[in-house]
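Form 12-C: Joint structure prediction
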Amino acid sequence: MTTTDTAVAEAVLQTQIQHFYAAQMQLLDSGKAEDWAGTFTEDGVFAANAHPEPAAGRAVIAAAARKATDEYAAAGIQRRHWLGMVNVERRGPDEVFAQCYALVIETPRGGQARLHVSTRCDDLLVRAEGRWQVKDRQVYRDDLS
Amino acid sequence: MTTTDTAVAEAVLQTQIQHFYAAQMQLLDSGKAEDWAGTFTEDGVFAANAHPEPAAGRAVIAAAARKATDEYAAAGIQRRHWLGMVNVERRGPDEVFAQCYALVIETPRGGQARLHVSTRCDDLLVRAEGRWQVKDRQVYRDDLS
Amino acid sequence: MTTTDTAVAEAVLQTQIQHFYAAQMQLLDSGKAEDWAGTFTEDGVFAANAHPEPAAGRAVIAAAARKATDEYAAAGIQRRHWLGMVNVERRGPDEVFAQCYALVIETPRGGQARLHVSTRCDDLLVRAEGRWQVKDRQVYRDDLS
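Section 2 - Result
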């Protein structure tokens, strides 16, 4: 059984991005909004068809995430972001384009879990300082597409 | 930290199948019914306990997928197929049996995302022309099992 | 394109744990309660914030799983446990701490699939007898957290 170096490199890349998504979204869902923003590049962009304007730069992304996090906490709602069906395309040694699906599951304290929204997510990821970071994220809610 | 060649080969295989599923189902969900059918072998079979007859052969699979795709588009519904919990078993150098779960999430334009069905999916996959292809897919809807 | 041995080892580990979860939960969902309990160590612990007491030891875990499995079968409900967003952290050559999300999807025979609960799962996994096993699992239902 032989496995080519290219096949190994592709599998490692695919797995790293999956792992990155798991760690990244666990930060947001556990309320660490600023740490989550730190998974974007300093000049990173977060855009969504549900938002009037993109958030540009870590500080702006962090402030928006903090606001939403605090509102959910005040409402007693636990969010879970599931990113899956990840399709990774290498653009360069340290650059990747990844398309995935994302679900947001919400559970009110003492209440019933529910599927909030289904979305598609397009990410431009770059490797800097030895770790993957989001340079550009575009989220498309299925109900608005 | 040593990693055996066998462990690497198994991980590469598992990751390739996950990647295949992501790319495959993104084709269908984005309306590329014919490209999706092209991820089956020329003589591929798609069977489901929700269908009276299996679809046999790429052309038949493509026609059925095109019909469903057009109906969903006309109804303004975005489908998302989530394949996960993928359990890959190597059958030969170029043959794999994979068991996974599949959810279908549907979102009407301007409406609420909902879980349509939960299913189990049994795939016989073969590698031909340098890429994985489905030779036989059996889908079991949980409500009909 | 070079891939370091460390990067390969990390990807192999991440993939092994994902594969373990897929195989493990397919056992439970297909009613093989005793085989599922066999994926815990002999002294394994299964604790959940929805249960008054942890189940300690394979025999106790098996008995609890058998009881639940039989109740679901009698009620005609197919369960599907989806574990995802897996974040693996190596603790040693044969020890891993993994944090993931878990959804339970339920479908009554002839009925509508529904999201039963959303949870977070913390696992201590050890490799013994050449396979990964759960030494300690803590499940936190989002509605009770």
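Section 3 - Comments
Chain C has one domain: 5-144. The longest strand of chain C covers residues 77-92.
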